[in-house]
Amino acid sequence: MSANTFGKLFTLTTFGESHGSAIGGVIDGCPPNISLDLEEIQRQLDRRKPGQSKIVTQRKESDSLEFLSGMVHGVTTGAPIGFIIRNENQKSKDYDHLQEAFRPNHADFTYQKKYGIRDVSGGGRSSARETACRVVAGAIAQQVLKDISIHAFVSQVGTIALEKPYQELDFDQIEENLVRCPDIETAIRMEQYIQEIKKQGDTVGGVITCVVKNVPIGLGEPIYQKLHAQLANAIMSINAVKGFEYGDGFASAAKKGSEHNDLFLADGTTKTNHSGGIQGGISNGMDIYFRVAFKPVATILQKQPSINQSGEEIILEGKGRHDPCVVPRAVPIVEAMTAMVLLDAYLWNKIY
Amino acid sequence: MSANTFGKLFTLTTFGESHGSAIGGVIDGCPPNISLDLEEIQRQLDRRKPGQSKIVTQRKESDSLEFLSGMVHGVTTGAPIGFIIRNENQKSKDYDHLQEAFRPNHADFTYQKKYGIRDVSGGGRSSARETACRVVAGAIAQQVLKDISIHAFVSQVGTIALEKPYQELDFDQIEENLVRCPDIETAIRMEQYIQEIKKQGDTVGGVITCVVKNVPIGLGEPIYQKLHAQLANAIMSINAVKGFEYGDGFASAAKKGSEHNDLFLADGTTKTNHSGGIQGGISNGMDIYFRVAFKPVATILQKQPSINQSGEEIILEGKGRHDPCVVPRAVPIVEAMTAMVLLDAYLWNKIY
Amino acid sequence: MSANTFGKLFTLTTFGESHGSAIGGVIDGCPPNISLDLEEIQRQLDRRKPGQSKIVTQRKESDSLEFLSGMVHGVTTGAPIGFIIRNENQKSKDYDHLQEAFRPNHADFTYQKKYGIRDVSGGGRSSARETACRVVAGAIAQQVLKDISIHAFVSQVGTIALEKPYQELDFDQIEENLVRCPDIETAIRMEQYIQEIKKQGDTVGGVITCVVKNVPIGLGEPIYQKLHAQLANAIMSINAVKGFEYGDGFASAAKKGSEHNDLFLADGTTKTNHSGGIQGGISNGMDIYFRVAFKPVATILQKQPSINQSGEEIILEGKGRHDPCVVPRAVPIVEAMTAMVLLDAYLWNKIY
Amino acid sequence: MSANTFGKLFTLTTFGESHGSAIGGVIDGCPPNISLDLEEIQRQLDRRKPGQSKIVTQRKESDSLEFLSGMVHGVTTGAPIGFIIRNENQKSKDYDHLQEAFRPNHADFTYQKKYGIRDVSGGGRSSARETACRVVAGAIAQQVLKDISIHAFVSQVGTIALEKPYQELDFDQIEENLVRCPDIETAIRMEQYIQEIKKQGDTVGGVITCVVKNVPIGLGEPIYQKLHAQLANAIMSINAVKGFEYGDGFASAAKKGSEHNDLFLADGTTKTNHSGGIQGGISNGMDIYFRVAFKPVATILQKQPSINQSGEEIILEGKGRHDPCVVPRAVPIVEAMTAMVLLDAYLWNKIY
User: Fold this and answer.
1) In a 3-state reduction of DSSP, which class is residue D106?
2) Contact D3/C223, CB-based, under 8 Å?
3) D71-72 vs D75-76, strand pairing mode
4) Given an 8 Å threshold on Cβ–Cβ distance, is A223 in contact with B14?
5) What is the tens place of the pLDDT at every residue in C193-217?
């Protein structure tokens, strides 16, 4: 029941701080006899990597993945898969001035109050660096679930929103721009906006949409492990996430039943899919789609008043290397968490 | 790891179908030496009860609660608290015509496909009747957490939304109207709208807002048991919920860091509370607030085309006793799930 | 993670005190579409029932089982199975003199110290009455695992031990005598000894042996859910158990590897089975067999010095209705726990 | 619910194979602000290390421990503690002849049948090398539980048994001989016997006794997390263990209640301690003591007939570096598992 373990049958346990010697994890419950494409896993890590483009943090990490166990010649054995990623580009000096400071909207205050101690450098355990481990496990889960396709993309940056329904988008375009928005025109506007925000020393929030196709019928366990509740839990655990909705989401609140009901076709599919592919907590075979709200990054390169551990008022200088907008790098993280939830549900469903 | 168990240290395991002989549950992990107000628990149940007003389902259930264990003269002993609520007003005949039918936006299809069998009457296990058990456990959790106040209320019905910030509302007004909206003028409009929808044989969705005051600092466990992720999981497990956001939620996506950051006051509180009382997954002592989207009830009293288990096209007659809008009765359920999450986090935090 | 829940995928959550209104439980994870023989479940309960013969406690309980959910016409649906057994023959007055007393080798002292409160009557939650719920769940597990046969029997009462290897015993004889020992001559001596002990107002311990045949290869999960570790955990959770050994058990400590190794036959079975059917925590298809030590019942009908909650010395009068020897009634409990462990492992193994 | 995770609140998740690049683990739930003595942890590892004396396997491993996270200047922060131990002295060639072979009393057959694949070298995941990780976590748990003393020692090797009650032993003598038996005369006989067995190319079993002093009252959670059931589960998960008994154990089966009952003294302690420090699954403050049976090591340096994966009969040559008797090196492992169980129970008990 480790709080640093995700999942029930397919599990990921992570460790590591932003500026420690390494981060890493243990994946357990991976089915045996899966021939893993290790380069593909590294590719997924590279999508999340800092320093990958001009609109993300300039911290340089190769994020080289070392697997330590659980495979024979790249084939899984059913044994736990241990892995580490050494940290390389820690600049802990950037944090010297923060030893005593509480930064607004960071976890400094709450970690200090909860544990009575905290690892200041780079945000320690609360840093989003931990999510690299999720990408590793998610990439493996995706390789187990070969037939399911998971596509996340940026659908909003600040006030710039992509309004097209996902059915009209070409997911092949997602990786073709720095923002990871499949609509090229919107992507350009988003990228320009992020550049502008960056120049202001400010940050901005955004929204990621995720679409899952080819989900088998039957995933999800009533009552307290409904598929969408598991997805919400997984997605909300990602740093900076403030909201989750699936299917019509908040818009369904304004609708009538006669508008919202998805009528069946003879083959068991439905004409519409307001429901988002899940009924009673169980997948019905239609596309699962959901939206995720991210707050603006808390670290801004502007002076901010704050307090220190002694309760004294201080002025924070914005330093360090940070993302002006987190959503481009969060796309593979959303996909990873989704893959893990689906594999967990898939394994559970094999019991029947 | 029962899928019908909620919680980690304070747990609720439920059983029972809508038209079976009884529903019930087992509460484990309740601290000993708590003198429970059993009438207050029944009062909470009555807030969720069918037949309580003209705008909810007319199924008549007394929902009389029988406790079977875990107390000596009303004082908890640390032993599990078993309870049952007998079903009284089952009209399973209402479901005779549905033996083979799949109703749109219900769990008929997914349960049948997953389990190869289903309890048709009243929706069986997928019925929201199960949530009565949650109200019992939540009411107990609330009595343990005496100092924390949890107030949920209806903030939207269909297109009618309450726009005032929660700080301007009088929570004492919540129970003063059938809709459970603390703004009397809005409440009247909502009630009229629900009546209208009901006459049309239709249903409508809505939003519930929940505000938690007086939360101790330190609740929530990084990384995979962040307090807001646990809340999302809990709330999304309630029937008909489609979305969850806390703090500024989806609105934060459009904001800049310089707007969204909550600056500290010298006492460790913050000037604003865009964050919604949680940083890094740990409560910071400020109000926790979140919004929950509910879809319109799937059962409408209109004819709808559908299919049966043989894949034949049929016409569904809308029958039975159903809510035109689920949010008024869902208010105590949202509060109950919130109380359970907070008690679970509170107990876990005692480890340190 | 309720401490009153047993199992991981097939789970039993129990509640209820010895002299409360009812005991009961919730079984979750039972596969759907199992047509249960409810009379057979009651028959198993009757094997554990008090008052069944002259050598057990004379408390009279019909132990009538009421199922509340989880089935349609006796067929499981995959939903949780709730059940209760009303207590009928509580004589709480028998415990009036014990309100403040700590009985030796009972849980009075430890419950009081741990919880600061306890349910005195009948031992409250610590009573072996709880095990009736295990027999219900175990009987269901056994019906799911139709092909596996589980036979427990009494192999020692006090100093009278059955020395024959289990292969020479006729398990059909187990239910043919009050002691549940398959060797009739030994059974008679055991019964006489129990009668004698009872006349002395004393009690005596014993040993139960359990043999499981027809176990599929592959049950059990390395490293921390090895099949024998799960069995040990399950069996040690039964009231009064003090020891567990499987295969050659403690005798293997005195052996050499060349004596103890079980050599393979060409079909993958082994010539001998010192190992007890499990290698590396995984069943190998050979018989699983283990022995369980039970201490003598703590309540004796003799005067004993003791103390009360205030630390004052008192003299305890032996009162109430108690078993002179617990093993005859514990046979179905050992079988039940075994069946639950095996079903849990069986379901887990379906993941691969 | 990873099968490679031990514990509920204080957890250890391990990974790694005998001849892989590294073994390691993640410890979660360690209380913050504990100043760890890292050299002491290495010292405990050295007690388990291969090659430490002439009576154990001659594989040479420095077992150098690298901590990767969870501390600031050696002080725990509440974050998970990741660690690895690189393997150095793999001689996988020793296993070339076993690629297809099933060795008797090893996990070769069961792993192959369960997973359809296995890591042959050094026994892969089923090797006792994994237990090094347990020693790390146990050493940390012991440092958290400063006041509790845990002493395990060898009490039997083959037919040579130490008969003295533990109260008459000097635990300071345990580390003074290669066998780890606190009675010097018996230790010498045991050592000679192991040498003799080794010359025969054979192996032998043994027994470890463990005594825990200064346990607080109240550890352990009824009904399914009784302290002794947790201990049994933990200890039985150690490689080669075949039996567990606590207090009077199997000997209690032969006793009468009037002999076995531990009468109270006025201070709540008991005159005798047949019970072994636990009543109703909860520690009562008296010494906890238990005995653990180990089978003889399966690998013998003698020719043995066996089969291969194709079911063909083969002759196994005994090769490789193996322990003639496992108990001397298992002493720190038994202590480690005990420390982890107690810390887990200690943390849980803080909830009340």
Assistant:
1) coil
2) yes
3) antiparallel
4) yes
5) 999 999 999 999 999 999 999 999 9
